[in-house]
Write a structure and sequence with these properties.
18% of the residues lie in helices and 30% in strands. By secondary structure, it is an alpha+beta fold. The chain has a domain of 105 residues. The chain has a 4-stranded antiparallel beta sheet with strand order 1-2-3-4, with no helix packed on it. The relative contact order is 0.10. About 17% of the residues have low confidence.
Length: 165
């Protein structure tokens, strides 16, 4: 410790440096919104062009926001300009379309017919999947639970060499 530095000043600096060094370690494991793992769902802002909620979309051309209120979860998809395209509500695998967004009349949920067009998955989580179907003239949407992976099908296509080879 420096002779002219008071002990309390030195301790303050040491605590501040320790906290600043520990904070990146703490945030790396917290499931914070910046890493989109376990991000808290916003309680309000549904229907807004740029709600105060984390953007969950991996594709920069789209914005996907999740909201939760009174145990009901909502999902909203905006385009890059903030125009609300679709919004759905869901509880335990039951989905319904909300009358929000310019494509609200072109959203299929689980159990509906799959739209025609070229599919692009815009968002996928453990609970739901948002797929955009583009056919040139208009966009159609499918919101459903993610399909289970058929591991038997994968195993049947993988050739395992025998010991004799």
């Amino acid at each position: 410790m420096h002779k002219n530095m008071p002990r309390t000043h030195f301790l303050s600096i040491a605590v501040l440096m320790g906290a600043s060094m520990a904070s990146p370690l703490a945030s790396a494991q917290c499931g914070c919104p910046s890493d989109k793992n376990g991000a808290p769902k916003a309680p309000f802002g549904l229907g807004l062009p740029f709600p105060a909620a984390p953007d969950m979309a991996p594709n920069p051309a789209w914005q996907v926001y999740e909201f939760e209120r009174d145990g009901i979860r909502y999902l909203q998809v905006n385009d890059r300009y903030g125009i609300v395209r679709v919004a759905v509500g869901h509880i335990d695998g039951t989905f319904w379309v909300l009358p929000i967004g310019i494509d609200a009349d072109r959203v299929a949920v689980a159990g509906d017919a799959v739209p025609a067009g070229i599919p692009t998955t815009l968002y996928s989580s453990a609970d739901l999947q948002v797929i955009l179907y583009s056919n040139g003239n208009e966009d159609r949407w499918l919101v459903r639970r993610p399909l289970p992976i058929n591991t038997a099908s994968i195993r049947s296509r993988v050739r395992v060499p025998s010991r004799a080879e």
